[in-house]
Design brief:
Length: 260
C-alpha cells in the first residue's frame, strides 16, 4: 500500500479507479465502501483528510478524531492500493482557496441551514480530490444523504465524469448508524442517541411526522426531522421519500436517515 502526502506526487493510474474520500477515524461503514470499490475496480484509492472548510466551529474541527496510524493499518488490511493523506498546507497552499464551489440552495437547507457553508466546503474539497485522483467511480455512505445528493449534482453540473455510488448505512447491533462521532458518546449518551433511529423507523412504518418529532424532542435536542424528496431535498408527502434527522446528544451532533 502506497501512502502519498503531497497531491503533486499522485501518479497517473491505469485501469478503472475506485475512490473513497474520508476524513479518517475509520469504521465498518468505511469498510463497506472500500469493499465495494475493491470489487468493481482495478485500483482502490482512499483519501484521509480532515477538511477545515466544512467545519463551522473551530472546536468541532479541533476535536474531530484523528489517528492516521490506526487508519493506515485498517486500510492495509482491506487491501487498499493507494492512500492520499495530505496536510492542510498541501491541499490549501497559502492558507485557503480563493476560488471555491457554491452548492446553491441545495447547500443551504437541512444540514446547510445548521452549518452555513458546510456543503460549499464539501463540494470544494471533493472537486479537488476528483481532480487529483481522477477516479472512474467514487463511493459515499448513504448516512450522509444530503452530501450524496449534493455530490451527484456537483458531478452533473460541472461535468466531472465520475460515477457516484451510495452504499447502504452500516448500523451497529443496537441500531445506531456507524459514525466517527459515535466515539465521543458516553454509554448513557449512546443509549439516548438511539431515539433517532427509532424515530426514523416509526416514520417508515407510517407514523405521523409531527407526533414522531414531538416524541423525539422529549428525548434529545432535535435540529430537524423531515421527510423529503431524495433528489431535490424538498419536503414532500409523496412516497417513496427519505426521512432525515439530526439531533444533539450531549456535545455530539448525529445525523441519520431512512427510506420510506
Amino acid at each position: 500500500m502506497r501512502v502519498i502526502e503531497n497531491p503533486a506526487d499522485f501518479p497517473t493510474l491505469e485501469g478503472t479507479v475506485g475512490f473513497v474520500p474520508t476524513m479518517g477515524a475509520l469504521h465498518d461503514g468505511h469498510a463497506s465502501l472500500i469493499t465495494a470499490a475493491r470489487t468493481n475496480n482495478d485500483t482502490v484509492v482512499v483519501s484521509v483528510f480532515v477538511n477545515p472548510l466544512q467545519f463551522n466551529e473551530p472546536e468541532d474541527y479541533d476535536n474531530y478524531p484523528r489517528d492516521l496510524d490506526s487508519d493506515l493499518k485498517f486500510l492495509s488490511e482491506l487491501g487498499v492500493d493507494i492512500v492520499l493523506a495530505p496536510t492542510v498546507e498541501h491541499m490549501y497552499p497559502g492558507g485557503g482557496p480563493i476560488v471555491t464551489v457554491s452548492t446553491g440552495e441545495m447547500g443551504t437547507v437541512l444540514e446547510g441551514a445548521s452549518r452555513p457553508g458546510h456543503f460549499d466546503g464539501v463540494a470544494t474539497v471533493v472537486a479537488k480530490l476528483f481532480n487529483i485522483v481522477r477516479p472512474h467511480r467514487a463511493y459515499f455512505g448513504q448516512k450522509d444523504a444530503q452530501q450524496v445528493a449534493v455530490v451527484k449534482r456537483l458531478v452533473a453540473d460541472l461535468n466531472l465524469g465520475v460515477e457516484i455510488l451510495a452504499a447502504p448505512i452500516v448500523r451497529a447491533a443496537d441500531g445506531l448508524a456507524e459514525s466517527s462521532r459515535n466515539r465521543r458518546l458516553s454509554p448513557a449518551e449512546r443509549e439516548q442517541a438511539l431515539a433517532l433511529p427509532r424515530a426514523l423507523e416509526a416514520l417508515a412504518e407510517g407514523a405521523d411526522l409531527a407526533h414522531v418529532r414531538a416524541r423525539l424532542a422529549a428525548e434529545v435536542d432535535v435540529d430537524y426531522l423531515v421527510v423529503v424528496d431524495p433528489e431535490t431535498l424538498s419536503e414532500t408527502r409523496e412516497r417513496p421519500a427519505l426521512a432525515l434527522g439530526a439531533v444533539w446528544v450531549g456535545p455530539v451532533r448525529l445525523i441519520d436517515n431512512r427510506e420510506i
